[in-house]
């Protein structure tokens, strides 16, 4: 549901989003069973037709079967990549992995809503969003293997480096969006964070700054119910999307396991940003199916019943049910995707295992853009120390 | 001192920073000034006086009262291609932004393997001696100099204030620019057409032969007064204005100490693990056979900055520095 306390104009409509242009055959029509969230596809894979969500549904009204298959493919490949990374951690190839299992719809839906010129500020779990932005998934593994601390060029895909300290990137996104507005560009910015980050001062300050400067930024909060061991009740007394009200911009809760709803709501929010209507908070209500990271043990703080209840709402399963019921995908599509998925897994394994350690002199590289006398001095000392062993070996 | 030309004007240190910011705003449309009260008010010390009027609210930005937000959004603006100069209103107010400075601003260039540059200047009026209330008189420069990825400078006079601000803004690295607030009203000649010294180079401001006094920011003037007093007693002190705390110009300190053989470092910040400690360690290493005395330090105590009525007993003053000079010369 929307809480819109601003006096904002109605968002501009994209021509492609006109109702009635859909080529989608609807199998069933029903109302959402979930209270207080935007849902366009039920867990059973049935298309939701609910007047309350019409404002958002418009943004996916024209979606083609091919695009739907594309979303399905994105989610399947992202999950496969994620599973491969978890396995590589177990094999000792990665030091750590933060799995996105269960959050594929939230990430693919929102990621596919962005345009090339938009800018994305991720946490460290946005593997699906990275995929949508065209970042090679193997690039994400460097920091988890311990060969770099990020390392991709944020500007080549407008996808910022992963941010580990919780919530900091919300301010970077806001500042970037302030710059977009100064430039007179019609790009938008999207900041990802989670339910835990909603408690961070930086997120609150980002809300304040973005509201005061009417910055074109979407705050995309994946409420996956758990901040390591702490449930959302330890972060807030009100539903998170309602936080926006106090800052004077709209907040929307969307079914985070419904890729269609995430796509629609994020497009709506990005359009608001582009149209000069300022920030929006989207709370994607989802579930972290796996551990916080490979170092975490969720059995210490949560039971199976909860996970099983969420498994029934699986984001991939529900889109598959819809595709099948609507005859939008045949066995050939699923078989091809399975083969593509295997190939991706194989490539990820090979690339990671072949990933070289950096040269030890990388310690001293890029500490400063314009150099620094102390770094130069210590690099020279390090080199002399290293060379002293070479002398011994050569003797 | 050069004769006053068209390009040379006498002005207070605060005005020199103002002129420098004005010049930068004129020269580069990507330069922004942001902070609390920097607009209409012109900053609580009037350092940004008149800038918003001339450059508009979109370039001289009054921000919400949130230091982490100021630095965090400045990082975002820098990522977009801007060169923000942010003001932290007082030294003791920087800590809400410390995380953004240390964790994000300092490390982004390295994390991106050099692909991202963050040309952000963080201006911090610092130091005591103005009778202020709590949290308005601190000297936290060592807390920033300790962090790789940051550069830390502090001018001692109006001319350096002007030029070092120009250079800080032009730097592709984040620069923490500590302004000696008790010297804001001290006047000096500023030649806006001069060729400045490199930003991180120390300068001998008074030559001497018996002992070197090394200082930066507000303590340079004190050290010059100490040298005057010592001269009356027949002691020849060299005064070195370090100007930069990160990097420190050890070559310049070494050259001076090899000549004078004695070194006293003076800063307002607490002595314990302060920049003087680092200088003492490195100079001992570099000049071990030249030194006639251990490197001594004069600075604040390991105690919270005291109430204003007794701050003069906490801050280095003429007698305390002279005492250290005497002790060093007694070896």
UniProtKB/TrEMBL annotation, chain B:
Signal peptide: none annotated. Residues 11-186 form the Transketolase-like pyrimidine-binding domain. The keyword Oxidoreductase applies. One of its GO terms (molecular function) is oxidoreductase activity. Its cofactor is thiamine diphosphate. It holds the Pfam family Transketolase_C. PANTHER family: PYRUVATE DEHYDROGENASE E1 COMPONENT BETA SUBUNIT, PYRUVATE DEHYDROGENASE E1 COMPONENT SUBUNIT BETA. This is 2-oxoisovalerate dehydrogenase subunit beta. The lineage of its organism: Bacteria, Bacillati, Actinomycetota, Actinomycetes, Kitasatosporales.
